[in-house]
Structure formats: structure tokens, C-alpha cells
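pinned: reference chain
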Amino acid sequence: MHETIFDEVLAGTIPCYRIYEDEWVLAFLDINPLSPGHTLVIPKERAAYLHELSEESSAAIGRTLPMLCRAVMEATGIEDYNVLQNNGHAAHQAVFHVHFHIIPRLEDRGLDLEWSPGELSPEDAEDLLAALHRSLGTDD
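pinned: its C-alpha cells
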């Protein structure tokens, strides 16, 4: 894994507006926010993609995100927000260190999404379920 800007933030060589920090996680304000309160939550473990993250770091992120969402809501007065996490270039990942965005939705500020849903046929669902169960080692 190549060094990223988040390595420098974690090392303290690049300053950040720290919101929260513990043994596993650092949360800070995004310096290019989509809306006021836009927060980045990163594991201290170096991993480019979510599937590479250890169970310990994953659990720490999972415990921390709800608390940080509540703090962002209270501090900004918002009720609506997105939690976004991207993996890979095609999925719009720009910094290759796992990170989550908490993005408040304020009138016209926040994350805009274009959603183009498809259809899932029963046959495709069964094939996909079988493949997923094999991958998880839960096929019966």
C-alpha cells in the first residue's frame, strides 16, 4: 500500500480538525466539505479497501460511526445525512486508505446521488445466493 495523505494526518505531519480519536479510529472535519459538518472517519490501521481491514478495526469503526453521526446531527442541527464509503477507482475512491464520510444534508448542500436501479430475476438471485454462500462457506 502506498502512503496517503491520511498517513500524514495520522502521523501529525499534516494538521487536521480532530473531532474524535481513540486507539483504533480518528475522525476529523473534511477540508473540502460537501456541507458543514462533513466528517471523515478513518481507521488507524493502513488498508486501502474495506475488505482488507482487520476485524478489530472494522468493529471499532462500527462502534464509532453511530456516535459520530449523533454528534454531527447535534452540532449542525441536521436530521438527514449520508454515510459514504468507496472502494476502488471505479467506485470514486480518491484516497486509498479506508475512510467513511458522514455528510450532512442541508437544503441544497450534501451528497447528490443518481440511482439507476435494475431488476433481479429469481434465477439470478438463486445463482448469486449460491455463489455468496460458497464464498462465505455457508453452503448447505
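why pinned: The mean pLDDT is 93. Helices lie at 5-11, 55-76, 122-136.
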